[in-house]
Amino acid sequence: AKSAGGDSHVFFNPLLTEAAEQRRHMERDLRSAIRNHEFVLFYQPVIDLVTQRLCGAEALIRWRHPTRGLVMPDSFIPLAEKTGLVVEMGLMMLDVACQQLVSWQNQGLDYSLSLNVSGRQIPDGLPPAKLQEMARRYSISPSKLALEITEGVMLHDIEKSLGWLNAVHELGFKVYLDDFGTGYSSLSYLKLFPVDTLKVDKSFVRDMQDGSNEHTLVGAIIAMGRSLGLDIVAEGVELQSHLTALQRMGCHYAQGYYFSRPVPAEEFDAVATRVTAL
Ligand code: C2E
Ligand code: CA
Ligand code: CA
Ligand code: CA
């Protein structure tokens, strides 16, 4: 390659080298975490606003790091995506999610569970046939498992992504469009993709007050979603006033700190009892 000119020494940036070193270290850490099964799922309750009952959960990954404690996804998912490790992690989490559904089923609980899927997993990292095989192996109904995607997922290869979505949907799995309202061309995607549910992004819900722009936007998203025959989940519900407004606007489901933070599986039953009593 051609040199960038006489002063190529400017590329010796000790800060950059350090960052690269840190990244390599983190990547090594991620690989060993996969081998050692350090990733777990936490579960955040989702409430049916019509029946006022708990109807399921969103699964959110956590890293139980041997020295750093509980590590949140925002600090490792981006690197896992960049390195492709998110594919292997995703398959492991699918397994955990299926086991959780089985456990609820065995307790006579008819809960749904949604799992976040990154663009890197689609279409080849999470083959529809694999999903079907898992559902069969665990005898769970595909309709109880939802895959949360964002519009970004579709930007790589529209044809292939659409093929994946259609296949997954035809197998009976649910498709949720996550962070709705934050991307671009949201509306045209809705026409194109087999989506069951819209998740209203928490940034809108958080700033909802009577008469605010966010209030108007959330109302419009709910009305539009409903008229397209979609279910609506509002995320980031932190206040009683959010809940009241959402109910008035005809939102079907809600999740957020108002009900509960994401909790480990062993705490979910206790939270479920408390949430239902709210
Ligand atoms: P997300 O899918 O939009 O998930 C919602 C995030 O909002 C979660 O953060 C959740 O803990 C948080 N949250 C829930 N209720 C409230 C609330 O009332 N107020 C506020 N301010 N926040 C609330 P978390 O668990 O840190 O996850 C961050 C992101 O990491 C997720 O955003 C998702 O994009 C990604 N992620 C999580 N688990 C997975 C996974 O298994 N696979 C992949 N590929 N990505 C994941
Ligand atoms: Ca999500
Ligand atoms: Ca979201
Ligand atoms: Ca997100």
UniProtKB/TrEMBL annotation:
| Domain EAL residues, every copy | 23-276
Protein name according to UniProt? Sensor domain-containing diguanylate cyclase
Organism listed in the record? Rhodoferax fermentans
